[in-house]
Amino acid sequence: xxxxxxxxxxxxxxxxxxxxxxxxxxxxxxxxxxxxxxxxxxxxxxxxxxxxxxxxxxxxxxxxxxxxxxxxxxxxxxxxxxxxxxxxxxxxxxxxxxxxxxxxxxxxxxxxxxxxxxxxxxxxxxxxxxxxxxxxxxxxxxxxxxxxxxxxxxxxxxxxxxxxxxxxxxxxxxxxxxxxxxxxxxxxxxxxxxxxxxxxxxxxxxxxxxxxxxxxxxxxxxxxxxxxxxxxxxxxxxxxxxxxxxxxxxxxxxxxxxxxxxxxxxxxxxxxxxxxxxxxxxxxxxxxxxxxxxxxxxxxxxxxxxxxxxxxxxxxxxxxxxxxxxxxxxxxxxxxxxxxxxxxxxxxxxxxxxxxxxxxx
Length: 361
Hints:
- The protein is an alpha/beta fold.
- It has two domains: 3-161 and 328-360, Medium-chain alcohol dehydrogenases, catalytic domain (Quinone Oxidoreductase, Chain A, domain 1), CATH 3.90.180; 167-305, Rossmann fold.
- It is 27% helix and 26% strand.
- The protein has helices spanning 43-49, 97-100, 154-157, 163-174, 190-202, 214-223, 236-243, 259-268, 291-297, 311-323, 342-350, and strands spanning 3-10, 18-24, 31-40, 59-60, 64-72, 84-87, 118-119, 126-127, 137-141, 145-147, 182-186, 206-211, 227-230, 249-254, 269-277, 300-303, 335-337, 357-360.
- The strands form three sheets. Strands 3, 5, 6, 9, 10, 17 and 18 form a seven-stranded mixed beta sheet that branches. It has a six-stranded parallel beta sheet with strand order 13-12-11-14-15-16, with helices on both faces.
- The longest helix is centred in the middle third of the chain and has 13 residues, at 190-202.
Protein backbone atom coordinates (compact mmCIF):
# COMPACT_ATOMS: atom_id res chain seq x y z
CA UNK A 1 0.00 0.00 0.00
CA UNK A 2 1.21 3.50 -0.80
CA UNK A 3 2.10 6.04 1.88
CA UNK A 4 1.10 9.70 1.93
CA UNK A 5 3.78 11.82 3.61
CA UNK A 6 4.89 15.45 3.88
CA UNK A 7 7.77 16.47 1.65
CA UNK A 8 9.59 19.50 0.20
CA UNK A 9 9.01 19.94 -3.54
CA UNK A 10 10.53 22.32 -6.08
CA UNK A 11 7.85 22.70 -8.74
CA UNK A 12 9.57 25.13 -11.09
CA UNK A 13 12.90 26.84 -11.72
CA UNK A 14 13.96 29.46 -9.16
CA UNK A 15 10.57 29.40 -7.43
CA UNK A 16 10.30 28.95 -3.65
CA UNK A 17 9.91 25.35 -2.56
CA UNK A 18 6.62 24.12 -1.14
CA UNK A 19 5.70 21.67 1.60
CA UNK A 20 3.29 19.17 0.06
CA UNK A 21 1.80 15.74 0.53
CA UNK A 22 3.35 13.14 -1.77
CA UNK A 23 2.75 9.46 -2.45
CA UNK A 24 5.52 6.95 -1.69
CA UNK A 25 5.02 3.35 -2.92
CA UNK A 26 5.86 0.24 -0.96
CA UNK A 27 9.25 -1.14 -2.02
CA UNK A 28 9.46 -3.39 -5.05
CA UNK A 29 12.28 -5.81 -5.88
CA UNK A 30 15.65 -4.40 -4.88
CA UNK A 31 14.12 -1.35 -3.18
CA UNK A 32 13.86 -0.07 0.40
CA UNK A 33 11.41 2.23 2.15
CA UNK A 34 13.18 4.45 4.69
CA UNK A 35 11.75 6.51 7.56
CA UNK A 36 13.86 9.65 7.31
CA UNK A 37 15.17 10.88 10.67
CA UNK A 38 17.33 13.80 9.50
CA UNK A 39 18.49 15.40 6.26
CA UNK A 40 21.05 18.13 5.70
CA UNK A 41 20.37 21.14 3.47
CA UNK A 42 23.10 20.90 0.84
CA UNK A 43 24.01 23.45 -1.84
CA UNK A 44 23.25 20.78 -4.44
CA UNK A 45 19.58 20.97 -3.43
CA UNK A 46 19.68 24.67 -4.22
CA UNK A 47 21.31 23.84 -7.57
CA UNK A 48 18.33 21.60 -8.32
CA UNK A 49 15.85 24.32 -7.34
CA UNK A 50 17.65 26.83 -9.57
CA UNK A 51 17.68 24.46 -12.57
CA UNK A 52 21.46 24.10 -12.39
CA UNK A 53 21.40 20.28 -12.58
CA UNK A 54 18.65 19.59 -15.13
CA UNK A 55 15.09 20.67 -15.88
CA UNK A 56 13.22 17.54 -14.75
CA UNK A 57 10.81 19.40 -12.46
CA UNK A 58 9.11 18.85 -10.09
CA UNK A 59 11.97 17.80 -7.83
CA UNK A 60 11.72 16.07 -4.47
CA UNK A 61 14.66 17.70 -2.72
CA UNK A 62 17.01 16.44 0.00
CA UNK A 63 19.73 13.80 -0.12
CA UNK A 64 22.08 14.06 2.94
CA UNK A 65 20.02 11.76 5.08
CA UNK A 66 19.91 9.09 7.74
CA UNK A 67 16.99 7.06 9.00
CA UNK A 68 15.65 3.58 9.61
CA UNK A 69 14.59 1.01 7.07
CA UNK A 70 10.84 0.42 7.34
CA UNK A 71 10.44 -2.22 4.64
CA UNK A 72 12.39 -3.89 1.85
CA UNK A 73 11.37 -5.48 -1.43
CA UNK A 74 12.07 -8.92 -2.82
CA UNK A 75 15.69 -9.94 -3.15
CA UNK A 76 17.05 -7.46 -0.61
CA UNK A 77 19.48 -9.06 1.84
CA UNK A 78 22.02 -6.35 2.74
CA UNK A 79 19.58 -4.34 4.89
CA UNK A 80 16.48 -5.25 6.86
CA UNK A 81 13.62 -3.42 8.58
CA UNK A 82 14.89 -1.62 11.67
CA UNK A 83 18.43 -1.03 10.37
CA UNK A 84 19.84 2.46 10.94
CA UNK A 85 21.22 3.64 7.60
CA UNK A 86 22.87 6.58 5.87
CA UNK A 87 21.60 7.11 2.33
CA UNK A 88 24.02 7.39 -0.57
CA UNK A 89 23.66 8.42 -4.19
CA UNK A 90 26.24 6.01 -5.62
CA UNK A 91 24.69 2.53 -5.32
CA UNK A 92 27.27 0.56 -7.28
CA UNK A 93 26.24 -2.12 -9.78
CA UNK A 94 29.11 -4.57 -9.23
CA UNK A 95 29.15 -5.50 -12.91
CA UNK A 96 30.36 -2.53 -14.99
CA UNK A 97 33.96 -2.22 -16.18
CA UNK A 98 34.96 -0.03 -13.20
CA UNK A 99 33.48 -2.48 -10.70
CA UNK A 100 35.13 -5.42 -12.45
CA UNK A 101 38.49 -3.62 -12.26
CA UNK A 102 38.13 -3.33 -8.49
CA UNK A 103 37.34 0.40 -8.57
CA UNK A 104 33.62 0.50 -7.74
CA UNK A 105 33.80 4.16 -6.66
CA UNK A 106 34.00 4.89 -10.41
CA UNK A 107 30.92 2.74 -11.15
CA UNK A 108 29.36 3.70 -14.48
CA UNK A 109 25.95 2.17 -13.77
CA UNK A 110 24.86 3.28 -10.30
CA UNK A 111 21.18 2.70 -9.73
CA UNK A 112 18.14 4.17 -7.99
CA UNK A 113 14.65 2.98 -7.14
CA UNK A 114 12.65 1.91 -10.19
CA UNK A 115 9.25 3.03 -8.90
CA UNK A 116 8.51 6.74 -8.85
CA UNK A 117 7.26 8.80 -5.95
CA UNK A 118 4.51 11.18 -7.07
CA UNK A 119 2.42 14.21 -6.21
CA UNK A 120 -1.16 13.47 -5.15
CA UNK A 121 -2.33 13.99 -8.74
CA UNK A 122 0.06 11.30 -9.98
CA UNK A 123 2.74 13.63 -11.36
CA UNK A 124 6.10 11.79 -11.06
CA UNK A 125 8.74 13.43 -8.88
CA UNK A 126 12.46 13.57 -9.67
CA UNK A 127 14.26 12.79 -6.39
CA UNK A 128 17.44 14.82 -5.84
CA UNK A 129 20.44 12.58 -6.53
CA UNK A 130 18.02 9.66 -6.65
CA UNK A 131 17.15 10.04 -2.97
CA UNK A 132 14.58 12.78 -2.21
CA UNK A 133 14.88 12.86 1.57
CA UNK A 134 13.20 16.15 2.57
CA UNK A 135 10.30 13.82 3.28
CA UNK A 136 8.98 11.76 6.15
CA UNK A 137 9.61 8.61 4.09
CA UNK A 138 11.49 7.99 0.88
CA UNK A 139 11.92 5.11 -1.55
CA UNK A 140 15.44 4.21 -2.70
CA UNK A 141 17.37 1.34 -4.19
CA UNK A 142 18.45 -0.94 -1.37
CA UNK A 143 22.07 -0.38 -2.39
CA UNK A 144 21.61 3.28 -1.46
CA UNK A 145 21.22 2.26 2.19
CA UNK A 146 24.43 1.84 4.18
CA UNK A 147 24.16 0.37 7.67
CA UNK A 148 26.09 2.29 10.35
CA UNK A 149 26.32 2.18 14.13
CA UNK A 150 22.97 3.42 15.52
CA UNK A 151 24.78 5.09 18.41
CA UNK A 152 25.47 8.03 16.08
CA UNK A 153 22.74 10.70 16.02
CA UNK A 154 20.97 10.95 12.68
CA UNK A 155 21.63 14.68 12.30
CA UNK A 156 25.38 14.06 12.32
CA UNK A 157 25.51 10.71 10.52
CA UNK A 158 23.32 11.87 7.65
CA UNK A 159 25.87 14.48 6.60
CA UNK A 160 28.14 11.66 5.47
CA UNK A 161 25.63 11.10 2.67
CA UNK A 162 27.07 13.94 0.60
CA UNK A 163 29.06 17.00 1.73
CA UNK A 164 31.22 15.56 4.49
CA UNK A 165 32.08 12.44 2.49
CA UNK A 166 32.79 14.50 -0.64
CA UNK A 167 35.22 16.81 1.15
CA UNK A 168 36.86 14.17 3.33
CA UNK A 169 37.32 11.88 0.34
CA UNK A 170 38.60 14.66 -1.91
CA UNK A 171 41.53 15.13 0.46
CA UNK A 172 42.13 11.55 1.61
CA UNK A 173 41.08 9.40 -1.36
CA UNK A 174 41.44 11.60 -4.44
CA UNK A 175 44.24 13.83 -3.19
CA UNK A 176 46.02 11.07 -1.30
CA UNK A 177 47.01 13.33 1.59
CA UNK A 178 49.63 11.60 3.74
CA UNK A 179 51.55 12.26 6.95
CA UNK A 180 53.69 15.37 6.73
CA UNK A 181 51.97 16.77 3.63
CA UNK A 182 51.00 20.39 3.10
CA UNK A 183 47.41 20.98 2.02
CA UNK A 184 45.44 24.02 0.90
CA UNK A 185 41.63 24.02 0.75
CA UNK A 186 39.92 26.73 -1.28
CA UNK A 187 36.38 27.33 -0.06
CA UNK A 188 35.42 26.66 3.55
CA UNK A 189 31.81 25.64 3.35
CA UNK A 190 30.74 22.18 4.44
CA UNK A 191 32.74 20.34 1.77
CA UNK A 192 35.89 22.40 2.34
CA UNK A 193 35.65 21.97 6.10
CA UNK A 194 35.41 18.22 5.64
CA UNK A 195 38.51 18.30 3.44
CA UNK A 196 40.32 20.13 6.23
CA UNK A 197 39.15 17.57 8.79
CA UNK A 198 40.25 14.75 6.49
CA UNK A 199 43.68 16.29 5.94
CA UNK A 200 44.15 16.63 9.69
CA UNK A 201 43.20 13.00 10.30
CA UNK A 202 45.55 11.90 7.50
CA UNK A 203 48.46 13.60 9.27
CA UNK A 204 49.02 16.74 7.17
CA UNK A 205 51.24 19.15 9.07
CA UNK A 206 50.40 22.34 7.16
CA UNK A 207 46.70 22.90 6.40
CA UNK A 208 45.83 26.21 4.76
CA UNK A 209 42.20 27.34 4.66
CA UNK A 210 41.29 29.84 1.92
CA UNK A 211 38.05 31.81 1.78
CA UNK A 212 36.57 35.27 1.28
CA UNK A 213 34.64 35.11 4.55
CA UNK A 214 36.52 35.68 7.80
CA UNK A 215 33.84 33.80 9.76
CA UNK A 216 34.49 30.68 7.72
CA UNK A 217 38.22 31.03 8.21
CA UNK A 218 37.73 31.15 11.98
CA UNK A 219 35.62 27.97 11.83
CA UNK A 220 38.29 26.32 9.70
CA UNK A 221 40.86 26.82 12.45
CA UNK A 222 38.56 24.95 14.81
CA UNK A 223 38.39 22.11 12.29
CA UNK A 224 42.16 21.76 12.02
CA UNK A 225 43.51 24.48 9.72
CA UNK A 226 46.97 25.65 10.77
CA UNK A 227 46.92 28.77 8.57
CA UNK A 228 44.27 30.91 6.87
CA UNK A 229 44.27 33.06 3.75
CA UNK A 230 41.69 35.80 3.25
CA UNK A 231 41.14 35.64 -0.51
CA UNK A 232 39.53 39.09 -0.48
CA UNK A 233 42.73 40.70 0.74
CA UNK A 234 45.59 38.53 -0.53
CA UNK A 235 46.82 36.81 -3.68
CA UNK A 236 45.89 33.21 -2.95
CA UNK A 237 48.66 31.60 -4.97
CA UNK A 238 51.37 33.82 -3.51
CA UNK A 239 50.12 33.27 0.05
CA UNK A 240 49.94 29.48 -0.28
CA UNK A 241 53.45 29.44 -1.70
CA UNK A 242 54.72 31.69 1.08
CA UNK A 243 53.24 29.39 3.72
CA UNK A 244 54.86 26.34 2.12
CA UNK A 245 58.44 27.52 1.84
CA UNK A 246 57.88 29.06 -1.59
CA UNK A 247 56.99 25.77 -3.26
CA UNK A 248 53.22 25.43 -3.09
CA UNK A 249 51.12 22.80 -1.34
CA UNK A 250 51.41 19.07 -1.93
CA UNK A 251 47.62 18.89 -2.36
CA UNK A 252 45.22 21.73 -3.17
CA UNK A 253 41.48 21.07 -2.98
CA UNK A 254 39.09 23.37 -4.83
CA UNK A 255 35.82 23.08 -2.92
CA UNK A 256 34.23 25.99 -4.80
CA UNK A 257 34.21 24.79 -8.39
CA UNK A 258 34.74 27.96 -10.40
CA UNK A 259 37.30 28.57 -13.17
CA UNK A 260 39.11 31.20 -11.10
CA UNK A 261 39.36 29.01 -8.00
CA UNK A 262 40.56 26.02 -9.98
CA UNK A 263 43.26 28.16 -11.60
CA UNK A 264 44.34 29.11 -8.08
CA UNK A 265 44.42 25.45 -7.10
CA UNK A 266 46.45 24.56 -10.19
CA UNK A 267 49.11 27.20 -9.57
CA UNK A 268 49.13 26.99 -5.75
CA UNK A 269 50.30 23.36 -5.78
CA UNK A 270 53.91 22.27 -5.73
CA UNK A 271 55.44 21.26 -9.07
CA UNK A 272 54.73 17.60 -8.38
CA UNK A 273 51.61 18.35 -6.37
CA UNK A 274 47.98 17.45 -6.91
CA UNK A 275 45.04 19.75 -7.65
CA UNK A 276 41.63 18.29 -6.83
CA UNK A 277 38.30 19.66 -8.05
CA UNK A 278 35.41 18.70 -5.78
CA UNK A 279 33.32 21.89 -5.96
CA UNK A 280 30.52 21.50 -8.52
CA UNK A 281 30.72 23.84 -11.54
CA UNK A 282 27.68 24.92 -13.55
CA UNK A 283 27.25 23.89 -17.20
CA UNK A 284 28.32 27.19 -18.74
CA UNK A 285 31.70 27.35 -16.99
CA UNK A 286 34.88 26.83 -19.00
CA UNK A 287 38.53 26.62 -17.96
CA UNK A 288 41.50 27.93 -19.90
CA UNK A 289 45.05 26.99 -18.93
CA UNK A 290 48.26 27.26 -20.96
CA UNK A 291 48.89 23.72 -22.13
CA UNK A 292 52.62 24.26 -21.60
CA UNK A 293 51.92 24.87 -17.89
CA UNK A 294 49.88 21.67 -17.68
CA UNK A 295 52.79 19.82 -19.25
CA UNK A 296 55.61 21.60 -17.45
CA UNK A 297 54.27 21.56 -13.90
CA UNK A 298 53.85 17.79 -13.71
CA UNK A 299 51.93 16.36 -10.81
CA UNK A 300 48.24 15.58 -11.18
CA UNK A 301 44.96 17.34 -11.85
CA UNK A 302 41.96 15.34 -10.66
CA UNK A 303 38.22 15.60 -10.23
CA UNK A 304 36.61 14.00 -7.19
CA UNK A 305 33.15 12.49 -7.53
CA UNK A 306 31.67 11.95 -4.08
CA UNK A 307 35.17 11.90 -2.65
CA UNK A 308 35.91 8.71 -4.60
CA UNK A 309 34.12 6.93 -1.78
CA UNK A 310 32.71 3.45 -1.45
CA UNK A 311 29.78 3.96 0.96
CA UNK A 312 29.77 0.39 2.28
CA UNK A 313 33.42 0.82 3.27
CA UNK A 314 33.62 4.49 4.20
CA UNK A 315 30.38 5.44 5.96
CA UNK A 316 30.77 2.91 8.81
CA UNK A 317 34.45 3.85 9.18
CA UNK A 318 33.70 7.57 9.45
CA UNK A 319 30.89 6.95 11.92
CA UNK A 320 33.36 4.95 14.01
CA UNK A 321 35.80 7.88 13.88
CA UNK A 322 32.98 10.14 15.06
CA UNK A 323 32.08 7.85 17.96
CA UNK A 324 35.78 7.72 18.92
CA UNK A 325 35.84 11.53 19.09
CA UNK A 326 38.27 11.84 16.18
CA UNK A 327 35.90 13.32 13.57
CA UNK A 328 33.63 16.05 14.90
CA UNK A 329 30.52 15.68 12.76
CA UNK A 330 28.51 17.68 15.30
CA UNK A 331 30.56 20.74 14.37
CA UNK A 332 28.99 20.67 10.90
CA UNK A 333 25.45 20.93 12.30
CA UNK A 334 24.83 24.67 12.63
CA UNK A 335 21.09 24.44 13.27
CA UNK A 336 18.26 21.93 13.38
CA UNK A 337 15.08 22.86 11.51
CA UNK A 338 11.77 21.45 10.32
CA UNK A 339 10.61 20.61 6.81
CA UNK A 340 8.78 23.92 6.65
CA UNK A 341 12.07 25.80 7.13
CA UNK A 342 13.96 24.57 4.05
CA UNK A 343 13.36 27.72 1.95
CA UNK A 344 14.66 29.89 4.80
CA UNK A 345 17.65 27.57 5.11
CA UNK A 346 18.54 28.25 1.47
CA UNK A 347 18.68 31.98 2.29
CA UNK A 348 20.83 31.31 5.34
CA UNK A 349 23.16 29.19 3.22
CA UNK A 350 23.56 31.97 0.64
CA UNK A 351 24.56 34.38 3.40
CA UNK A 352 27.29 32.03 4.64
CA UNK A 353 25.85 31.89 8.16
CA UNK A 354 25.88 28.08 8.52
CA UNK A 355 27.88 25.00 7.65
CA UNK A 356 24.72 22.90 7.55
CA UNK A 357 21.10 23.40 8.45
CA UNK A 358 19.73 19.95 9.20
CA UNK A 359 16.06 19.00 8.89
CA UNK A 360 15.11 16.79 11.81
CA UNK A 361 11.91 14.75 11.56
